[in-house]
Amino acid sequence: MLINDIQDEIIEEFSSFDDWMDRYSLLIEYGNGLEPFSEADKNDQNLIDGCQSKVWFTAEMKDGKVVYHGDSDAILVKGIVALLIRVLSDHTPKEIVETELYFIDEISLREHLSPTRSNGLNAMLKQMRLFALTYQAQQ
Q1: Catalytic residue among 3, 6, 48, 51
Q2: Is 87 considered catalytic here?
Q3: Hey, what CATH class is 3-138 in?
Q4: Tens digits of residue pLDDT in 9-61
C-alpha cells in the first residue's frame, strides 16, 4: 500500500469522529496495538530529543524497505508513535523522504496537541526521515 493510501485511510478513520476525545481514544487504541518494543532498545541512543515524554525509535532495512519500531512512556504519545509507524514503515527510503505527510494537518492533529507535544511530533518525524535519508545514502 502506498504512503498516500495509508494517509487517506487514516483521514477517513478520524473523520468518523467529531469529538476530539473520541479521536484521542482512537490514538490510544493505536498505541495499544503497537508491537512490543525491546527493553534493551529503550536507551539514550534511541531516545528522541525534543519530546516532553520519553519516546524511542529504531529502524532497520528489510528487503529494501525501512521498518520502524518505537515506543513511549506516555499513552497518547505511544498512539502517535503507532500512527507514524503505520504510515512510514515498510516503504523505501526514497518514498519516505519524498512524501508529504498531509494527514497530520487533515486530521488536525498538530492543533490538538500542546506546544510541547507538537514539538515532539516534529522531532519524531525528523528522526524517522533521518533514518530514511541515512539508508538512502547507503544504497
Answers
A1: 51
A2: no
A3: alpha beta
A4: 999 999 999 899 999 999 999 999 999 999 999 999 999 998 889 999 999 99
